[in-house]
Amino acid sequence: MPALVLLGAQWGDEGKGKATDLLGGSVDYVVRYQGGNNAGHTVVVGDQKYALHLLPSGILSPGCTPVIGNGVVVDPSVLLSELSGLNERGVDTSKLLISGNAHIITPYNVTVDKVTERFLGKRKIGTTGRGIGPTYADKINRVGIRVQDLYDESILTQKVEAALDIKNQVLTKLYNRRAIAVSQVVEELLGYAAQIEQYVADTVLVLNQALEADKVVLFEGGQGTLLDIDHGTYPFVTSSNPTAGGACTGAGVGPTKISRVIGILKAYTTRVGAGPFPTELFDEDGEALRRIGHERGVTTGRDRRCGWFDAVIARYATRVNGLTDFFLTKLDVLTGWEQIPVCVAYEIDGKRVEELPYSQTDFHHAKPVYEMLPGWSEDISKAKTFADLPKNAQDYVKALEEMSGAPISAIGVGPGRDETIEINSFI
Ligand code: GDP
Ligand code: IMO
Ligand code: MG
């Protein structure tokens, strides 16, 4: 059985954690391929709620091997505290594998993330402050520290020296901060080495051998399509590729192995941090979506910006990811509106535009063109089949499917594992 990718089709927080967990029981490996602990994935199992940041959501499925791929950035202190938090709750994490090529989020990268944001002032990105951007910048600048470097003290020291050489100049001269001592960083990183050694592996080899042996591999994206460094709303993006191609580079698996790409799509839209958001609401409806949908960041605790569903974005996600199908999430949150506006196109400087404009300036000017769909008032949280949904909810799903350009194969009607309507077989 070939590989599947599961990714966010909007600006993140679409419900990827729940979807991954749902599939976790039927797959052999769940692999994170990009991002780091900027992600916040919620999984609800029975009366237990888990918030995962760095670890793949498959870690909660016994029998599934969780993998942190080479494209991920790893903060070792976060990794260890997430592992011990799960162990305390009785979750077995011993199968975890971490790529030796994954880059490490060092303490100075976290510092640089925070001071850069402060320095940008009103032009700030609104990052999660977890050191993600500076760590990827070091990787591209070829001064990054990789997991494998923790096992060679001399190499580690040389690399930290190289990285801090310029950074300390910037920190002291530009940002008026104290210089960071090489020895202090090396000591801290070496302190993690023995604790994570058991997990470090050649994950590229493991995953390709697994695929050869007909195992099922699921790639779990962090963030979302519109936060992609290449295809998102740059510069208001994260510093990696959550889009489908990122799964190949971030895990070392060829595109010929991937047979299904599932886009996780919220029945409305949310965004955290700065950047354009055409359907954003600043009224009572936005407040209601936030309240009913519990739209508060899992990682930073910030309120999420909320707005109506945007079909232009969904179509774009279908295109840039080659989506085979969607999981539509949080349909239950829309219960109670008499009419539900859906953005079908934009008006940009007086012209109707059907597709996402490639120019960032145009996107900033985009005004949503809404179509009104009839709402429903019945409680849908107990629905088990599509036929259980009221007619207007069925029509809403069908309309979104039509506009978004790929079939909807599952519908979320609540946060729990079983609060899901399966339309097509999951695997
Ligand atoms: P992720 O980052 O994509 O994994 O999503 P988050 O976990 O950050 O945010 C999604 C939130 O919606 C979480 O609190 C989930 O428990 C919740 N959730 C997921 N699917 C559904 C659904 O179908 N209905 C409702 N009401 N909540 C859901
Ligand atoms: P999950 O996986 C929503 C946003 C931040 C900021 C921008 C850059 O839970 O969907 P970064 O710290 O990555 O440099 O911040 O990206 N962002 C997210 N928004 N969900 C996420 O993850 C996010 N990860 C980063 O708010 O706007
Ligand atoms: Mg999240």
TrEMBL record:
Q: Does the keyword Chloroplast apply?
A: no
Pathway annotation: Purine metabolism; AMP biosynthesis via de novo pathway; AMP from IMP: step 1/2
- Chain positions recorded as GTP binding sites: 12-18, 40-42, 304, 330-332, 412-414
List, from the UniProt record, the residues annotated as the active site of this protein.
Answer: 13 (proton acceptor), 41 (proton donor), 139
| Binding-site residues, Mg(2+) | 13, 40
Subcellular compartments: Cytoplasm
Q: Which UniProt keywords apply?
A: Cytoplasm, GTP-binding, Ligase, Magnesium, Metal-binding, Nucleotide-binding, Purine biosynthesis
Q: How does it assemble?
A: Homodimer.
Q: State what this protein does.
A: Plays an important role in the de novo pathway of purine nucleotide biosynthesis. Catalyzes the first committed step in the biosynthesis of AMP from IMP.
The identity of this protein, by name, is: Adenylosuccinate synthetase
* Native source organism of the sequence: Streptomyces xiangluensis
